[in-house]
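Fill in residues.
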């Protein structure tokens, strides 16, 4: 089982990238599990025909000890097992702590043993690297980390913070940084800016994802590009990204 945490600044296209990666891996016959670790709980909606699924924390609040795995995990496109950790009641509690609670519940219910995924993708908010949001790295849940960024200043700043956190945890034998994914925003000199930032953190750009309206067209249908436009250049781009990711995690 390969376990990858995908981080990036909010709004950078991390969930879009993660969902398309999940769909690309599923199209090859791999058993994929995608776990959204953002309080917005929208990581998996494009694998679920645009529908949001019940979150782990909401189900725990409603059903307490009667929660079952069927309440938390839902089959999406290509058989991808979709899970959303969710967040605390607005204004009460800590979102990071919510992720920890969700992970503990999935372990308690033997989710990984039941679904036996070939690959697990954790989609994690990267604006803050507090204990909860760092759980996939420090808790031993992920073996590799990918950072989605553009050439925009705040996206690169967040990427740098995440990379430093990974280095700190890496010293203790936890997940390692596998590379950057450039999700282009057509910033001037963008590729060079991202390449330099990656080099400063002793890593590389695994793949460049161009800005393309096909992505929005697919999302308007509640689908990934892989599902909605499988013959498009953008689908080929995400398939190439999946190839590269699979290569570096071996």
């Amino acid at each position: 089982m390969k376990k990858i945490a995908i981080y990036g600044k909010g709004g950078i296209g991390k969930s879009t990238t993660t969902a398309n990666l999940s769909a690309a891996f599923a199209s090859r016959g791999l058993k994929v599990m995608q776990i959204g670790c953002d309080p917005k709980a929208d990581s998996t909606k494009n694998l679920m025909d645009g529908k949001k699924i019940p979150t782990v924390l909401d189900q725990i609040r409603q059903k307490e000890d009667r929660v079952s795995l069927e309440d938390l995990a839902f089959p999406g496109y290509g058989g991808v097992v979709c899970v959303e950790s969710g967040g605390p009641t607005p204004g009460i509690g800590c979102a990071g702590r919510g992720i920890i609670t969700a992970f503990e519940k999935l372990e308690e219910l033997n989710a990984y043993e039941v679904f036996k995924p070939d690959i697990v993708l954790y989609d994690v908010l990267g604006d803050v690297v507090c204990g909860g949001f760092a759980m996939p790295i420090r808790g031993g849940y992920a073996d590799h980390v990918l950072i989605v960024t553009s050439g925009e200043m705040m996206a690169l700043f967040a990427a740098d913070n995440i990379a430093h956190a990974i280095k700190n945890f890496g010293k203790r034998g936890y997940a390692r940084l596998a590379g950057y994914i450039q999700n282009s925003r057509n910033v001037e000199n963008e590729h060079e800016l991202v390449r330099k930032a990656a080099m400063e953190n002793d890593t590389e750009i695994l793949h460049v994802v161009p800005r393309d309206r096909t992505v929005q067209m697919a999302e308007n249908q509640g689908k990934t590009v892989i599902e909605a436009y499988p013959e498009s250049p953008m689908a080929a781009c995400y398939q190439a990204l999946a190839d590269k990711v699979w290569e570096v995690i071996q």
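The chain has a mean pLDDT of 92.
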